[in-house]
Each structure stands twice: as C-alpha cells, then as structure tokens.
Amino acid sequence: MDAMLKASTTGIVAEETLDPVDWTEVQVLSHRIVDEAVGYLRDVRERPVWQDMPAEVKAFFAAPLPRSPQPLAQVCGEVTEKVMAYPMGNIHPRFWSWYMGSSNFTGALGDFLAAIQGSNLGGGNHAAALMDSQVVDWCKQMMGFPQSASGTLVSGGSMANIIGLTVARNTKAGIDVREHGVAAIDKPLRFYGSDQLHSCHRKAMEALGLGNQALRRIPTDAGLRIDISALRAAIAEDRKAGFRPACVIGTAGTVNTGAIDDLQALAELAAQEDLWFHVDGCIGALIAIAPENSHRVAGIEHAHSVALDPHKWLHAPFEVGCALIRDAASHRNTFAVTPEYLESTPRGLASGHWLHDYGLQTSRGFRALKVWMALKEHGIEKFGRLIDQNIAQGHYLSTLIEAEPLLELVAPANINIVCFRYRGDETSGERQKALNTEIMLRLQEEGIAALSDTTVHGQHCLRVAINNHRTRREDLDLLVRETVRIGQEISRAGVALPSPLVGEGGREAAG
After folding, report:
1. Same domain for 282 and 200
2. Fewer CB atoms inside 10 A, N or C side of the chain?
3. What order of strands is seen across the sheet that includes strand 417-422?
4. What is the mean pLDDT of the chain?
5. Cis before 319? omega within 30
6. What is the pLDDT of residue 474?
7. Please, are residues 306 and 154 in contact by the beta-carbon 8 Å criterion?
8. Which residues, including other chains, have CB under 8 Å from residue 451's CB and lie 6 or more apart?
9. Domain limits for position 249
C-alpha cells in the first residue's frame, strides 16, 4: 500500500513481481497441496483408471484468456476439480494401454525442486549441469557403454532416436552434410529396420531430409524379429542398385509385441557391412539392468547409438528420454554451434560444459533431478527387479488367457506385452474386431482397466503393456474376469456392434 501511495504521489509506476504478496499464505496452501498429492498417489487404486469428462468440464477448457487475477487458492481448486480428477490414467495400476511408466512420488518432488531452482540446462558451470552429465553417465553404465561415450537427455524416445539417427546420417553420408545439405550426398542413403519399427523412425527419415523411402522395412520371422538373412540380401541389393547402406536399426522391444531383435547378430552384420548400428531401446533397453532377463538384450553394448526412456522402466515423471552415442566426437560434431554469445570462458558461469552442443535444444529443462533422486533413493537393483516383475506378470497373464476358453493369445508374450482377443461367436474378422474394440472401450468407460489395440500377423487384438510398478497379479486376474464378463454380456444382449474405429490395419500401439 505504501509503495502504491508513493507511486501515485511521485508519478513513478510501481514495479511488479510474480512473487506472492504473502509468503505465509502461500506456504500454508503449498502444504495442503502436498498433502493432497500424497493422498492422490496413496489412494490411486480406489479411483477409476480413466473416466470421460462431463460436458461442463470440457467447456471449462474453452474459457477465454484471463485478463485479471484470481486468488491462488481458487486456481488450485480448479486444478483439483477439473484436471486431477480426469487424468490419462497411466499412474494407475491397471493402466496398460500404451507403453508408459507409472511415475513415482520422489520423481515428482524432483520435478518440483527442478522448477523451483529454475536452471536452464543448455550448459554452463553450475550443479544442475553436472547432475545432467552424471545421469547420462549412469545410463551409459546401465547399457554397458564405455565412459568415453557421449549422450544427452531429451524429451523422450522419439527425440532420442532422432538424435542417434542424425549422428548416423552425418557420419555415413560421405560429405559434410551440415555444410552442404543432403542434396549433396552422391549416393542416396539407406537405413534398415524391421517391419515392426515404431513410427518415429519414419518421422526421423522425413525430418532428416532423406524421405520415407530411405527407410527399408525388412520382414520379420515368426517371433516378429528382424530376419537377418533378408536384411543381408537387402543391403547387397541396395549396393548393387547404387544406394549407400548407412545404418541398421535394431529394436530392443517392439511396440506391438515386445519382440527383441537378435542384437548380437545385428552388431556383427553392421561391423561386416560397415554400417552404423543404432538400437531403439525405448521399450526394452533397460532390461539390461534386470537380473533375470538381461540376456534378452545381449549385444546392445556394441551399438553405436542407443535410444532409451527413463520415463518408462525407471518410472520418471514425464518427460525424459536419453540418447547415447559411442563416439563422442561424432556426437558433438553433428550438433555443436558456438556463436559469440555462447563462447566458453576460462572461469565463471560460462566455463562449464555446453550441453546444448549434443542436441537440437539450446534451452533445456532440468530433467535429470527426478531421475537422480529416485535412483539414489531406491538403487538400480530395485528397478531391475521391478522390470523382472513386470515380465513375470506378462507371462502370468498369458497363462490366464491360455486357461480361459473364451480368450486366445494372438502372439506369444516375449517380455511384458500381451496380445490377445475375446473369441466370441463371431466368425467374421470385422465382427471380431468390432467386438474386441467394444470390450476395450467398455473396460475404459467403466474405469476397470485401460488397454489398447493393434494388429499382429494381420489379426486385430487387444494389447496389454505392463510397464507399471503398481500392478499386482490380482489386477490381471480382474482383467481376465471382466473381459470375459463384458464379452458375454455383449453376446447375450445381441448388441449391434459399432463399426471399428480404425482401418483394416489397426492402430499402431504408442510407445
């Protein structure tokens, strides 16, 4: 009030800030928010996995731009009522739709503290930058990469793959792509991956200026792993046709079924053919830390680059991915730009490591803290056991499905992804698809479980991805019971099934 009075009498406009006028009031409100957050996670099992928003809630998000202030307590109340009550659901123990981690409270505290500290992780001489590098070093250790390797934290798996494939393109192009562009490449580059590749690789080819046709999809075997013989033949064919084979992409866990390519064989082939060996490990790279299952990803340590996702099996809150590059010089040479305003100094703030030299972002969030805190609290061995636990749960669900006459597996469970369908009495493929889609939607709408659907071996099916440290076997028992119940209810009632929501190919399961 005194400042306002002074401003009015002197003609000077009072300076403003976003800091609270009353810190005590904010402190009390903040304590209440933390209490509510603890209860939100503690009682997550008692809430529906997902629920649709009423019309009035959807209308709330169409309100115009606020021009005048409202009390913070009121703002927080609106968040509680309109946002927290209607989540995607991926922290719930029965969320198995898409391949997402289920977060953790310590990581959430890390995100809060990172935001409070407010550091920009473009680099520099400060603690957050050192922690960022330390978390990357820990990821290298998890993957069996040498200390001399490089890496960077990014938004998630799609960007981690783009980082790795960009380094591959620049390294194998035969020219200075950064200076002359892809049009100067004398022979068109070819990248290879299985027909089960995640769609982000197509986006990468397009973003890199190579085009979708530069990515050759290789057929898979009965286990949906890349066919090594077919790959070798494709490489020879492309060389003969005047293309330049550049990179083979191995998949450590396909998004549809969790199939893991023979990474050892791919590493050997890449060495023989002088190809860059990139591993998309966003689904399963972290199996490397699981004591009972690490053998499944043997060979990943030989990759030139690996993409992995701490926000999946390390359960960091969204978002954080990691790209690892074996050759640190190639990594930096792909991205580093040093304008005069970002030159290093011998001392002071600018004397530190410039992390933006290893990716596309100059401004980078403090993603490392939430990963660092959870790893320090629990230790890497516990995260490894949780991965083994999810894989065991996937196989447990498979046995339940095989024992239930009304259900059938569409593909054997490789790791923690289970693809199955309700048989019913329908004989038509389209009717089967409509029936299973309806079961999936009712499971969601009744708040029981969140599944997705996909197509495997040309057959539409339901997909359960158990990437969740809160899931228990009793949840899987419930899923089987409720799937059968809903399927039987639909069949008994003779309900007219809606047309499937997707085309004949089904929808690709997200990461």
Report:
1. yes
2. N
3. 407-411, 417-422, 459-465, 452-456
4. 93
5. yes
6. 98
7. no
8. 96, 97, 440, 443, 444, 462, 463, 464, 479
9. 157-308
Burial of residue 362 (CB within 10 Å: 0-12, 13-18, 19+) is middle
Q: What is the pLDDT of residues 236-248, one digit of tens each?
A: 999 999 999 999 9
Query: Which whole-number Å values give the CA distances from 27 to 17, 22, 31, 420, in the listed order?
Result: 18, 9, 6, 50
Dist CA 181 CA 305 (whole Å): 22
**Could you tell me the CA-to-CA distances from 134 to 74, 141, 326, 343 in Å, in that order?**
40, 11, 16, 23
Kind and range of the H or E element at 278? strand 276-280
* Closest to 117 (Cα-Cα) out of 99, 133, 131, 102: 131
The yes-or-no verdict on residue 110 having pLDDT over 90 is yes
Instruction: List the CATH number of the domain containing 468.
Output: 3.90.1150.170
DSSP one-letter code for 309: -
- The full 3-state SS of 204-236, as one line of letters, equals HHHHCCCCHHHEEEECECCCCCECHHHHHHHHH
Query: Could you give the CA distance from residue 36 to residue 227 in angstroms, rounded to a whole number?
Result: 51
What does the pLDDT average to over 257-285?
Answer: 98
For the stretch 126-137, pLDDT in tens is 999 999 999 999
Same domain, 257 and 387: no
Q: What is the pLDDT of residue 1?
A: 46
- Cα dihedral 181/149/197/200 (nearest 10): -50
User: What's the number of domains the chain is made of?
Assistant: 3
Residue 145: closest CA among 299, 290, 269, 333: 299
Question: Residue 480 falls within a domain, yes or no?
Answer: yes
Residue 194 has pLDDT above 90, yes or no: yes
- For residues 161 and 304, membership in a common domain is answered with yes
User: What is the rounded CA–CA span in Å between residue 104 and residue 317?
Assistant: 7
- Which token pair is 369? 């803290």
Give the strand pairing for 244-251 and 189-194: parallel
Expressed in angstroms, the distance from the first to the final Cα of the chain is 54
Tokens describing residue 54? 């009423």
Least reliable range by pLDDT among 182-191, 261-270, 342-351: 342-351
Q: Which residues contact 492 (CB under 8 A, 6 or more apart)?
A: none
pTM over 0.70: yes
From CA 202, how far away is CA 46, in angstroms rounded? 40
391 occurs within a structural domain? yes
Number of Cβ within a 10 Å radius of residue 71: 10
Residue at 484 is within a domain: yes
Q: Backbone phi, then psi, for 210, in 5-degree steps?
A: -90, -25
DSSP codes of every residue in 286-308: GGGG-TTTGGGGTTGGG-SEEEE
Q: How far apart are the C-alpha atoms of 426 and 287, rounded to whole Å?
A: 38
